[in-house]
């Protein structure tokens, strides 16, 4: 059985471990600590109750300014992954919905943004088809290996006219 809960400080190292198994985009422990200290209410983990292992997580934060310099409170998904052994069980969907709820209700975010590789079929299926994200922009050579990224957004509040 897997439980979805808010991350605690002692989970950060396990989230980093999960990230290292799942993604080429990795971060220093200091970066996890920053998220944990400032945005703890937005961090969620999927914990395998039997083993106590963290099998998935979402690392997220809030931002006030967008790429165009417009002041618009919004959330941002820094990283999301689920261990191979626990995929296709709805865990990513659940941790994402939990952080979305907090961005919307606690921080009154207008929208949430993220970057995703254009070739990441699984993540695109989740973001676009399941969670209702739309492509806002394509960023050329965004990743270290030169792959392009979709910059995606999901709106919680009415989209301003010019967006
Ligand atoms: C992307 C990822 C987080 C999805 O995690 P998950 O827990 O398996 O996803 P869920 O079970 O919640 O799936 C929700 C939806 O996502 C889509 N999806 C998930 N895996 C998919 C796949 N392999 N192919 C196509 N669509 C997929 C489906 O729409 C699915 O809904 P459905 O089960 O009703 O069909 C996981 O594959 C992963 O960790 N990948 C490596 C890291 C990564 O790419 N992170 C995202 C970086 S932007």
From TrEMBL:
One of its GO terms (molecular function) is protein-N-terminal-glutamate acetyltransferase activity. InterPro entries: Acyl_CoA_acyltransferase, Ard1-like, GNAT_dom. GO terms for cellular component: NatA complex. Transmembrane segments: none annotated. Residues 2-157 form the N-acetyltransferase domain. Gene3D superfamilies: 3.40.630.30. Pfam families: Acetyltransf_1. The keyword Ribosomal protein does not apply. Keywords: Acyltransferase, Transferase. Belongs to the acetyltransferase family. ARD1 subfamily. This is N-acetyltransferase domain-containing protein. It comes from Paramecium octaurelia.
């Amino acid at each position: 059985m897997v439980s979805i809960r808010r991350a605690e400080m002692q989970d950060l190292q396990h989230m980093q471990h999960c990230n290292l198994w799942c993604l080429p985009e990795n971060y220093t422990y200091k970066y996890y600590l920053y998220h944990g200290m400032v945005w703890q209410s937005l961090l969620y983990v999927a914990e395998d109750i039997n083993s106590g292992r963290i099998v998935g997580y979402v690392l997220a934060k809030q931002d006030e300014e967008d790429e165009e310099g417009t002041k618009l409170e919004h959330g941002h998904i820094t990283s999301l992954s689920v261990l191979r052994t626990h995929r296709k069980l709805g865990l990513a969907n659940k941790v994402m919905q939990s952080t979305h709820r907090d961005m919307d209700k606690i921080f009154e975010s207008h929208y949430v943004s993220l970057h995703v590789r254009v070739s990441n079929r699984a993540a695109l299926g989740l973001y676009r088809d399941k969670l209702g994200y739309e492509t806002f922009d394509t960023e050329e050579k965004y990743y270290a290996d030169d792959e392009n990224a979709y910059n995606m957004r999901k709106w919680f509040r009415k989209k301003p006219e010019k967006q």
